[in-house]
Amino acid sequence: MASASEPREECVQTIRSEIPQKTIHQSFCVQGVGLHHGGRVKVTVHPARENQGIFFRVFQNDSWVLVPARSHFVSSSTRCTILASGVGSLSTVEHFLAACWGADVDNLEVVVEGEEMPAGDGSSVFWMDYFTQSGIVEQASPRWYLVVNDWICIQDRNQYLFAFPGPSFSVSYFLDVFENPSFAEYAFFSGNQEFFSTIAAARTFAFQNDVDTILREGLGQGVRESAFVLDDNGQANQFLRMSEEPCYHKLVDMIGDLMLAGFRLRGQFVGLRSGHKLNVRMVKDILKKARIENENRYTSCH
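^ thats the sequence. predicted structure below, dont judge the formating
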């Protein structure tokens, strides 16, 4: 145990690594429909200069709006993560940002003509395919990390998200129906980027008792055929792509939301029934503990 006279290690520490920042080799374009609202959308992903981070240029209401991929710009985290700046907003960014983690990219300019990112099949795997085709290139500046040195707990009623110190990045998730102890699943991802393409195929899902609300709110329109539904016993209404697919999709969501820190993270993250709200709160708490103002790591997005 440290004595009172010894300096206390910061709960979250910013570290410059020897790993170079990365971007894509060439631009690519994706067209499709939004996951929740089903509207047509066109996305063009361009390389960006080092230290710019990932940022969106969104065309809405006959004007372009710059929306950085930072937790400071999260306007809603109910059922998906929505970023907003000024009069512009962009929904369901988490699957794309998770693929950015999996593709190991730091700097991107993402031009979006629409209000929501394309759904694909409700997973991140199609984004991974585009990144693979585009190719990844190293840049001159080093990558910065936020390192968790002490445990952190974010709670909302019976939902929890923990962060613990660890030598690298890892995520794990416990999924159950709180009132029904007969159903429980667990999944762990060690941060192996080669394995990420496997879990990236995990699709969006909903519990049966949430379906009526989702339909009444007009959500899930872009994945009506590919998303699956779980009953209170954890039984899916269609064949699953992998064991514990619901848990793995929650891990993909978590990875995407944690990218809103604007830094890569080192630590062990453990979710218990957690979702977008707790993911975003965790990012904001980490940045606060690291004394980072407005999550503004990049220099310019002009």
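The longest helix spans residues 245-258.
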